[in-house]
Amino acid sequence: MSIFRNVVFVAALAGLVAGIVLAALQAFATDPLILQAETYEQAAESGGGHDHAGAPAGQAAGSENMSTIAMAPEAAPAHEHGEDAWAPSDGFERFAYNVLANLVSGFGFALILVVASEFAGGIANWRQGLLWGLAGFAVFTLAPGLGLAPELPAMPAADLVGMQVWWLGTAAATAAGLWLIAFRRSLPFTALGLALILAPHVIGAPQPADFETPIPEGLHHRFVVAVTVTNLVFWAVVGMVAGALRSRIMGGESLRSSFA
Fold it and tell me: Which residue from 10, 3, 6, 18 is spatially nearest to 244, judged by alpha carbons?
């Protein structure tokens, strides 16, 4: 039973550190862009009503935590304009909710990474952890982001359910493809892995009915770059911290050996 406690402990510490790092980066890199976009959104609302769904996986609006709709980095809640709609106030309250969301999602992603690595034999050191972190970035940020780019407030979005399904399918297919390429190491499995990685992009992500938005293209481009870079750092920190802690706490133990 101790090995399971150690796995959770390593994931909790790695997620805590990475979540704090992500929140700090967002305060300087993505939050100012979100606030700037909200001025365009408010200007558009004052000029007339609009109707748009919540942003897809990997995106940001009023809250920019690192999870997507399905679960990962920079997700946006649906915009609600009724009298009963609630959102944290600007300033400390908004920042505090964002930090909390990053810590929770950081733990969740770290737990996924640590458990997956344990069934592969465990992470031996921080260098291996970095490689696992980069794999997590590819699965949960890079691959889904190729079809569903991070969006700012006032940008149109496709059907929420369709985006969730596509995001989850893309993450699962990318993870399975990378696993086959890295651990099967044969031409047929490599070909199958590449096919799995490419399949969601051949199918295509759901797209909005129209692309009209008051957000300048340059602002959106800077936001996409900022989200991608901050999530790359997040995943690198998750992997390295998890690798460094695991080597000290768990030694040669792994979930795979415990089930053997």
Answer: 10
> Measured between alpha carbons, how far is 129 from 212 in angstroms, rounded to an integer?
42
CA 152 centroid distance within chain: 15
Q: What single-letter DSSP state applies at residue 121?
A: T
pLDDT in tens, 27-38: 999 999 999 998
The domain of 38 spans: 2-259
* Total number of domains constituting the chain: 1
Contact, 236 vs 5, CB < 8 A?
no
Residue 62 has pLDDT above 60, yes or no: no
Alpha helices in the chain (DSSP H): 2-29, 31-47, 92-119, 126-137, 143-147, 160-183, 187-203, 217-249, 255-259
Distances (CA, A) of 32 to 80, 90, 152, 197, 223: 21, 12, 11, 34, 10
pLDDT in tens, 73-87: 454 444 444 445 566
Query: Distance between CA 178 and CA 192 in Å, rounded?
Result: 10
Over its C-alpha atoms, the chain yields an Rg (Å, rounded) of 19
Question: What is the SS3 assignment for 43-86?
Answer: HHHHHCCCCCCCCCCCCCCCCCCCCCCCCCCCCCCCCCCCCCCC
